[in-house]
Amino acid sequence: MHYPNSHPEVITFGESMALLIAEGGKGLEYTSNLTPSFGGAETNVAIGLSRLGHSVGWCGRLGDDPFGHRIYKMVRGEGVDVSHASFTEEAPTGLMVRENVAGRSSVYYYRKLSAASKMTPEHLDEEYIAGAKILHITGITPALSPSCAETAAAAMDMARRHGVKVSFDPNLRLKLWSVEEARKVLLPLAMKADYFLPGLDELKLLYETDSMDEIISKLGELSAVSIIKGGDDETYILENGKLSAVPYYKVEHVIDTVGAGDGFCAGFLAGLLKEYSLEEAVRLGNLIGSRVIQAIGDWEGLPSATEIERLLAGKAHVER
């Protein structure tokens, strides 16, 4: 457990929402049962890092309502420092509802004017950010409102002023804004990052091209190391103009793909904190991502450090 007033290794912030999942593989229109949980890219990454043994803090705005208090307690229960999260009576906690029918997941958002969308740079604690090794930001937060976009940029600037590395996953969500709107905000933010973690499909949309050569050329204009998720069978690393690749871990039974990218980010950042090489860090990210898609839920399948050690050592699970 990480306590208030500590300086976590990683800090992230953004919206965490209440989540209701339709049970039994039925669509929302026909199900009689909804399983409660919560989700948010940043809390998913925070929980993943905490389970891997790293100290991490999550900052966010929650509604002063039952959903908000449930999220706060559950994130805290996963060992994440929530001392800089806050509640407001001015807006509700966001909600998302999800169905998984015939292997295809669909998400419906009820988050407009949510508590998280009211975040401003004044809600940031620069001293708190300055004490971290890595600040992790996603492109979901700036999609919520202009003030959230300002807050994401301000957090990055604070981190850079204090030598804190910035990790940025664009996490393009076209249900929140158009690609044209996203492009104007996300590409400038990528310029502020030390580690840029896009998906290949996202890059095709952001850079308006299907050409891998053009994408690599555009990424070469950034000062960041780019980690490109979503290749056919591998994750790409672009560092100082050199492109390399790390193969995926094969998975026989994919149950739920939601949260895989966040699991990858948690594994990759954990690798950086352990001072792994980029290839080793990406390999760990690939492994964590492969575990997440074998469980239902945004973060429930994130493995512990002990589980990862067993997997890497090839030890079999003992049931009894």
UniProtKB/TrEMBL annotation:
Keyword Nucleotide-binding: yes
SUPFAM superfamilies recorded: Ribokinase-like
Transferase found in the keyword field: yes
All residue ranges annotated as the Carbohydrate kinase PfkB domain in the record: 10-303
Domain of life: Bacteria
GO function terms (MF aspect): kinase activity
Keywords, ordered alphabetically: ATP-binding, Kinase, Nucleotide-binding, Transferase
Family, similarity comment: Belongs to the carbohydrate kinase PfkB family.
Matching PANTHER family: HEXOKINASE FAMILY MEMBER (PTHR43085), PSEUDOURIDINE KINASE-RELATED (PTHR43085:SF1)
Listed name of the protein: Sugar kinase
